[in-house]
Write the structure tokens for this entry.
Amino acid sequence: SKLTSLGQLEMTWRSRVHFHPLLVRVLHKSRLRYYGKPEKKLDMPYQAYFEVADGSGMMSMVLWNSLCPEWYNSMKVGTVLLLEQYAIKTSYPFKTQPTPGDSQMKRFATIEISLNVRDPPTKISIIPEEMVKPEWGLPEVKYRFITRSELDDLPNNHSCDVIGLVTFVGRAERARKREHGEDFWLYRWAHAIDGTSDQPFILEIFATSQPDVFEHIHPMTYLVCTQMRVVRDLTENPSSTIYLTTSNESQIFITGWHKGQPYTKDTKVKNFIQWTKTQNEADQMKKTVIGGYYPFPRPPNNFLKY
């Protein structure tokens, strides 16, 4: 069928009501958002953002309401989609922006693709990877993996991807979203090593929309975290309190979930796997810790400072 591109959509969307089908690859995926309120009678008040791209550039795509439980888990980073009968809306200005792995990629930020059950009823098809043709010109998923030795030089809020061997995982903890609200964020601390430094990655992992992975992070698993943000305490000793925290677009993967993921082709991931083959499992097991209370960043040494 006659296809359109994201670039053509941006130029012609105001003058059209019906749009030609789109062929795009998912590059980023946000956590699932629940926006239900007691007074609003919506059956499935869910929403999820994706960043999708073709040869012309990258654009946001929003999955709405009952399409979320149906499609959210199938639309992985790297998935190729054929979209028909979708709507185009002006972009929501306050949404979070993932950092693209390819800094050269053009971003269409004024509009977004809206996928709904009706008005119009969107038709979504997933194209299996083996049927994707090179002549479609779809971009590959690119990552920004860093090693632990590179972390100390990175600025606050820098976006990166990491892989490491888990040596510590804390219990799940809760933090209030707002001072007096009843909603909580769920998170846990983890340490992961990659052999490039004596220090581990210190990871603050919030429960994303992957409960099956979040609950099963344990020592000795290979952990991949994407779209992590660097957090530095710029006031005291900057190197001692550097850690990474998840963002709205973070994805986490553990041993058993890596097969077929686009990052398995990345050079730094391959280097890490080579390093793990040189390690003695029993030696590493002795250094692992699980559970317990983990106060971080550490409180000051004396009470006056505190």
The CA atoms of residues 20 and 245 lie 40 Å apart. The chain has a mean pLDDT of 92. The chain has two domains: 6-136, 148-305.
